[in-house]
Amino acid sequence: MSRNDARLTRTSAVTDGRTLTDVTSTQRGGGLVDAAVRAARARRALAEGADAAARWIAGTVRPSGVILAVVASAGLACGVVFGWVEWMVAGAIALLLLAMAIPFLFGVRSYRVDLRLPHLRIIAGTSVTAGITVTGDGTRIALPGRIDIPVGDGLVEFGVPLLRPGHVVEETLELPPQRRGVIVVGPATTVRSDPLGLLRREHAFDDEYRLFVHPRTVALPSTSAGLLRDLDGSPTRRLVDADMSFHAIREYASGDSQRQIHWKSTAKTGQLMVRQYEESRRSRMAVVLGVAGEEFADDDEFELAVGCAASLGLRAIQDAREIDVVVGAEIPRVVKGRLRAIRHLPAASPRVLLDSFSGVDILDDTMRVEDVCALVAEGSDRLSIAVVVVGSTVDANRLRQAALAFSADTVVVGVLCDERAHPRLRTLGGIPVLTVGTVEDLAGLLHRGATG
């Protein structure tokens, strides 16, 4: 029994030893894993810090500051290694200038800036007034600085004087005239920089506005007169069983409404006879604006076309007419020719329509105007009038092709925009075409049609 006990004890001891060894190795392995994790975290922290430092340097050190830093490094290095006193002096001066520029960066957040834009909608070519209020937000006197206000692709600068804590400075800024479009104004950015322009620090606020620059439009005569006279009640070639315009009496057919039976004719002929009507034209109008770059001589001609289309749309809304305003949509070049796409502009109100026209751009990858008209005609067969607005590079054949896309019951009018041409009204292939050199010419030609 003692031997067995001794063996068991030794076995137990050996087993305990193995267990202890395994635990020790596991602990050692865990320590290596922890060290590896800590090393990975340290590397990640260093990488993030280096990246943040690089971004700070890129946003703070200007090109002249970079040159001065290179001069300082090279001068001091060459002076120490080769004993070149001149290089060492140049490096020391460059380093001193960099050090003197650092205090100018302090206080970039010592202002509280409030940018106000009282009018968010203006007409192209007009300026807009913005208000700016700067308040000293620190506990110490703030050094003079500058505030930059982005206006689209431009920049408006505003100089800030020396400010005491709580001191308020209010100014009115006259923003330059803008072209049609949706312009982003702001955010206001405080800028700190030294006199030599070596270092620069910025802080942007949250005040950002979207300025809608509407196209120039003109008041047009009512679409119930002239070339765009309202065709409500004017009969079409389509025969229907019930409408306002009486056409003829015919024999009763299965499915006809008994309310349309004409009893006098029935009594004369001895057969059931019913009334037949011609369908009246609905007061629905479409304005199709070509936006393909090849259809316009230049950007100014395109702006003229946008103004004419917007004027027509506004007149239709004022006349309570149902209106579709359609432009070509941008098509990816890889599928151009295989994909058809148009864009309907919202026209619930004059402001909504003008806001939509603010965002219309000339496109290189889009459908030709005749293809746009074909797609519009497919989507709406109840149009009474369609006005096609194009540039001077669209010839008569393309205008005729655009008109043929609509049904025979739709009156098609062309508006040809050419700043070099005299205003005139002519007929091309049975289509009345108005040639305009300014947006005011459109009103004159339509009025001439009303009185002619």
Structure characterization notes:
By secondary structure, the chain is of the alpha/beta class. Helices cover about 35% and strands about 25% of the residues. The chain is built from nine helices and 20 strands. The protein has a seven-stranded mixed beta sheet with strand order 16-15-14-17-18-20-19, sandwiched between helices. Strands 5-4-8-9 form a four-stranded antiparallel beta sheet, with no helix packed on it. β8 and β9 form a beta hairpin. α2 runs antiparallel to α3 and α7 packs parallel to α8.
Descriptive keywords:
single chain; 452 residues; four-stranded antiparallel beta sheet; 9 helices; elongated
What does this entry show, briefly?
The chain is 37% helix and 27% strand.
Query: What is the distance, rounded to the nearest whole angstrom, between the alpha carbons of the first and last residues?
Result: 135 Å
Number of strands: 20
Largest sheet: 7 strands, mixed
Low-confidence stretches: 1-26, 230-237, 239-244
**Gyration radius over CA:** 39 Å
Q: What's the rounded overall pLDDT mean?
A: 81
Beta-strand residue percentage: 25-35%
Could you give the order of strands across the largest sheet?
A: 16-15-14-17-18-20-19
Order of helices and strands: HHHEEEEEEEEEEEEHEEHEEHHEHEEEH
User: In percent, how helical is the residue content?
Assistant: 25-40%
The secondary-structure class comes to alpha/beta
Taken from the alpha-carbon principal axes, the silhouette is elongated
Q: From the structure provided, what is the oligomeric state, counting identical versus distinct chains?
A: single chain
In DSSP terms (H or I, runs of 4 or more residues), the helix count works out at 9
